[in-house]
Amino acid sequence: MKDVKIDKTWKAVLKEEFQKPYWEELTKFVRKQYLSNKVYPPAKNIFRAFDLCPLDKVKVVIVGQDPYHGEKQANGLSFAVNDGITLPPSLKNIYKEIQSDLENAPLSSGDLSRWARQGVLMLNSVLTVTANNPASHRDKGWEKFTDAVIKTLNKNRPNIVYLLWGKYAQTKGEVIDRDKNLVLISGHPSPYSAHLFFGNHHFSHCNEYLKKNGLREIDWK
C-alpha cells in the first residue's frame, strides 16, 4: 500500500501520511488480515468514500466508526450497505429522520453512493474489519489516518457541514473550526440512542447552510 490506490486529490494532500511509520505498520497488518481472514469491505473498496467524493467536491462529512462486519454489508461508505442488503437499524433510523425532516422518503437501497457523488464524504474512522468480529481493526493506525483526513479538510476547505452523531464522532470532530464550517451534533442513530437523534432536523439544516453559502443542496433521497 505504499502506492496507495486513492483518488488523486486526496493522495496529493495526504502523501505525508503515507510516509509515516504508523502507515507502514497499518499496511502490514491490513495485508496480513486480507490474506488470512475474511475482511470487509472488499480490498478494492477500502478507499471508496474518497474515490466517489474527491477533496474539492466535499460539501458534507458523515463520520462513522468501523465497517459493518456481516456478509456483503460493508461497501466503503459509512452507514451504507450494498444494494439489495437489508438496511441495518442505524440506516433505517437515518431514513426515518430524513422522511420526517424533509417529508421525502429515501430510496430503498442502502448503497449511499448517490449521496457520495453529490459531495457527501461518508467517512468511517476505521476502514476495515474482520468478518463477524466488530472493532477488530481498531487501534491499528486507521484512526490516525482518518484524523489526518479531517484535519486536512479543516485546513483546506471551509463551508463544510459535519454531521457528528454520537460521542465517538463528536470527539473525532473536536479539531473542526466552527467559525468556518457548520458542525451538527446529536445522539447516534442506533436503536440505543435514536431518541437523541430523531427530531434534530440535521438534513434540512445542512441544506439551508449549503444554500446560504451558494452551494447546491444535497438530494437526500
- Into which percent range does the helicity of residues fall? 25-40%
Number of helices: 8
pLDDT below 50 for ≥5 consecutive residues: which ranges?
none
Separation, N- and C-terminal Cα atoms: 35 Å
Characterize this entry briefly.
The chain has helices at about 10-15, 20-35, 50, 90-100, 115, 140-155, 165-170, 200-210, and strands at about 40, 60-65, 120-125, 130, 160-165, 180-185. By secondary structure, the chain is of the alpha/beta class. Strand 5 (about 160-165), helix 7 and strand 6 form a beta-alpha-beta unit.
Topology, pairings included?
Elements: H1 8-14, H2 21-36, E1 39-40, H3 48-52, E2 60-64, H4 89-102, H5 113-116, E3 120-124, E4 129-130, H6 142-156, E5 161-165, H7 167-172, E6 182-186, H8 202-212
Parallel strand pairs: 2-3, 2-5, 5-6
Antiparallel strand pairs: 1-4
